[in-house]
Amino acid sequence: MVSVAPMRLFRWWLFFLLLLLPLGMLVEGLLTNDLGADPAKYIVKELGFWALCWLWLTLAVTPLRKFFGWRWLMAYRRMFGLYAFFYAVLHLLAFATFLLGWRWDMLMTELTKRPYIVMGSLALLLLLPLAVTSTQKMQRRLGRRWKKLHLLIYPASLLVLFHFVWQIRSDFFQQLIFAILLAILLGYRLYLKRRS
Predict the structure, then answer these.
(1) Is there a contact between 97 and 110 (Cβ–Cβ < 8 Å)?
(2) With 80 as the cut, is the pLDDT of residue 179 above it?
(3) How many domains does the chain have?
(4) Confidence class of residue 2 from pLDDT cuts 50, 70 and 90?
C-alpha cells in the first residue's frame, strides 16, 4: 500500500506539470514556428483561455470536495489559483508586448474603445491580493479577514467571464459553456450557503 506522503507528492508534481503543459506547448509552437498565421494574437488568446480554465478549476475544488468527497483536492486549490493568476499575468504581458508594443497611448485608446479590456484589467486587480496573500503565513496573519478577502474570487470570475464574452465575433459556443459552468459553480455555493 502506498503511503499518503508519496502519493500527495506525486499528485503535487502531476498537477504542477499538467498546469504548466499549455505554456510548454506554446513555447514549443513558438520555437517551431507552428502558431498559425498570427502568432502574437494566438499567444495572447491561448494564455487568456488557460488563465480562465485554471480559475474555473480553482472554483470547482469546493463543489468537487462536497459532491464527491474528494478532500485531498483541497491541498492543491492554492496551486490552481496561483496558476490562474500566473497565466493571467502572462496574458496581460503578451497583450502589452505583442499587440501594443508597450505604447501607452495605444493602451489608453484600447481601454476606452474596448470595454472587455477594462473588465479583464479589473479582474486581474482583484486576483492580485489573492495571489499575494495565498501563503500560509499570510493566512495566519489575516485570520478571519483572509477568508473575506478571498471572496474576491467570485466578482473576479464574473469579470473574467464578461471579458471573455465581450470578445465574441461570431461563434459563442465556447463562451456559453464557460458561462454555464460558472453558473453551476457559483449556484452550488449559493445553495450550500442557503442550506446552512
Answers:
(1) no
(2) yes
(3) 1
(4) very low
